Amino acid sequence: MQNAAHGHVLVVEDDPTVAEVVEQYLARAGYAVDRAEDGAEALAMAAARPPDLVVLDVMLPAVNGFDVCRTLRERGPVPVIMLTARGDEDDRILGLEVGADDYVTKPFSPRELVLRVEAVLRRGRAGDADDGGSRTGLSTAGLSIDPVARRAVKNGRELALTLREFDLLSFFLRHPGTAFGREELMREVWGWDFGDLSTVTVHVRRLRGKVEEDPARPRLIRTVWGVGYRFDPAED
Questions:
Q1: Per DSSP, what are the bridge partners of residue 10?
Q2: Which residues form the OmpR/PhoB-type domain (predicted)?
Q3: Domain covering 8-124, topology
């Protein structure tokens, strides 16, 4: 029985060599690991034993990684880190669009992947710490969040947010009226000192699609040209 002290990770990878290496590194880091070789098997395993996080290859037989990610997102908020064999920006953006929390481009360092897994899970488990340890929720402009339960509601309707979308919304609600650059958001919300800034752009677009009355004309999450974004609750 693998050590599950740090959580349960489902690795979805059809290359047995890559899958084995990833499993070994995650197991050494204290994770229980299940492996699936294709999308259909991954979805069945995730339904039978919900993982804490999924490491998901894009190029899978039968059901590709994007479709698997979409289905996982429909089922619940499990974090997903996607693996892509190409450095194609379109692949990375599509992965984020369908709900991935992070991505790693092949060839990759297994140690880096473990660090990404740890960072995503740590962020997900620190909802109350992100609010200074307070268990008090935030509410404004018809939006309310519970940082402990990690629930977000818009006008009485619960929002289906990914881990990163929730963190981003929580950050905006805690800092109304303040403009932030994408670099600042990546550092404060993602905890990264560097990375692809399109990650922030895509997540802002996805979040607008869930909280704005008209995402094409956002009134809550405003674009500040030459700077980044600002949350304006009074504009709702």
A1: 34, 54
A2: 135-233
A3: Rossmann fold (3.40.50)
Please identify, in words, the CATH class of the domain defined by 129-235.
mainly alpha
Q: Alpha-carbon distance 16 to 137, whole Å?
A: 45
| pLDDT tens readout for residues 130-185 | 444 444 567 788 898 888 778 899 988 999 888 788 889 999 999 999 999 999 99
State which amino acid sits at residue 216: A
pTM of the model as a whole: 0.67
* Burial zone of 56 (CB within 10 Å; 0-12 exposed, 13-18 middle, 19+ buried): buried
Among 168, 6, 197, 194, CA closest to 93? 197
Which residue type, as a one-letter code, is found at position 185? L
Amino acid found at 191: G
Cα four-point dihedral sign 207, 211, 215, 218? negative
**What is the number of other CB atoms lying within 10 angstroms of the CB of residue 185?**
22
